[in-house]
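Final report, Chapter 2: Outcomes

The project's central promise was a pipeline that accepts a single protein chain and returns its three-dimensional structure in a standardized token representation, suitable for archiving and comparison. That pipeline is now operational. To close this chapter, we reproduce one record exactly as it appears in the project archive, with the input sequence first and the structure output second.
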Amino acid sequence: MIERIRTKALWAVIVLAILVVPLVIWVSPWWLLAEIVLVPLVLLGIYDYFQLRHSILRNYPLAGRMRFLLEGMGPELHQYLVENDTDGRPFDRDTRSVIYERAKNVGDKKPFGTEQDVYNAGYSWLSHSISPRPMIDDPEANLRVTIGGEQCTQPYSASVLNISAMSFGALGQAAVRAMNQGAKAGGFAHDTGEGGLSRYHKEAGGDLIWQIGTGYFGCRDADGDFDPEAFRANATLPQVKMIEIKVSQGAKPGHGGILPAAKVTAEIAEARLVPVGKDVFSPTYHKAFSTPLEMCAFIARLRELSGGKPVGFKLCVGDPREFAAIVKAMIQTGTYADFIVVDGGEGGTGAAPLEFSDSLGAPLNEGLLVVQNTLVGAGIRDRFKIGASGKMVTASAMARSMALGADWCNSARAFMFAVGCIQSQRCHTNQCPVGVTTQDPKLQRALDVPDKSQRVHNYHRNTVHALAEMIAAMGLDHTSEITPDHAVRRVTQFQALAFSEIYDHLEPGALLAGTAPARFQGFWDQASAESFRPWSASERAVRG
């Protein structure tokens, strides 16, 4: 349908302009007045079709002009368009304004103060200092975090903001190329998502975090099982900086996924090591391990096969006892992951069942607290770096996540918007109107890779710069110094509390000493390194 209407407006004007010619010759010269209108429209439509900066106009010459015309008609209508997409679904205003302005290098300064209701419960802010610090020089190069523990021989110096996991297949090749070129220019990392390590991820040479999901795409045998040699071949590439095991994701935790046959092109099949033109399934669980102890062994195996690179895992937190079981297994075996990425249940850019998106998985703040408190309470927080992802768009959102324990942040939707996404919500149909989430080459032509890669870099540079300005204003030299005391939230119209007052924060080693608050201690005591399933009361009694 989209293909049929894509250039319909332009062709309609061209046909009308041609039909007017015989009318001018045989009926009346007055018909030339129509050509005065039609010929400029034809020229404008042709310009739209070949220009590189606007994806909508490139795919919808002339017709796309209506969108920009409406946006410019006045602040009230512009506000409506900011808050709603063309289908009337919610369009995150903060996302739209911040990302587009930073990606296009447009100043994000505005007059007349905040438009938020600062006395509404839920409003949050960061505490500045009367004695601010000088801002760090060249934040993009220097605001970084080293990832890799004692068992890692190739630690990675990561930016505090990186591209979150999005697969080639879910994204088209043009979007993948633009993101990786932007990552290369800005010196930050690009997570491949679970769809394998494609030629387009490797083309520009940007740093990669290779995600290994339940389908083992890019490192699987003919039966879909993990293939160590196929893994080694990709994991040892210099461009691959870290390995991430996807345990679960915020959009649809515990669900798995499917890439429809129509989207499984030869290039996708090559990256995923699957047959062309057949549905590709991601199972709901890993076959390489089924217990926390086996998961630790898998982590050790991947680290060895990759030549000592940082290996970690990503999860959306569900039952806290399951994460406690993983921590117990790491302590018992002495094998530790190098990093943990916490994915909030509110996040996710790909299509997911509505009930999963709305009702499964802990939101980012709660997930971060479970991970942070469990690691601190077990006395091993210093062995890990924690990443956070889940609707991460602004520097202030990053700072709030860091106040709850995150060392760095990942964003998916921000970088999708930077390459031209307009949130039309057709990602699962292969009919993305701006060429971001489609394998259709006619639609992908809208996305000009050099232009959009620059926007990816712009967004990263401007957001990290904004974060550096904020922490300097808070009297800090680095994001690692942000604590729960620095973030404040209004809990009622008449009361505001620091994160340190709202949330429980365990003392180091409290879980091992048995002195943690009853709720946390209960989760810990019920967890077993031998199984993700918590022990029952009778099992705990038998096992002591």
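Archive annotation: The radius of gyration is 26 Å.
This record, like all others produced under the grant, will remain available to the consortium after the project formally closes.
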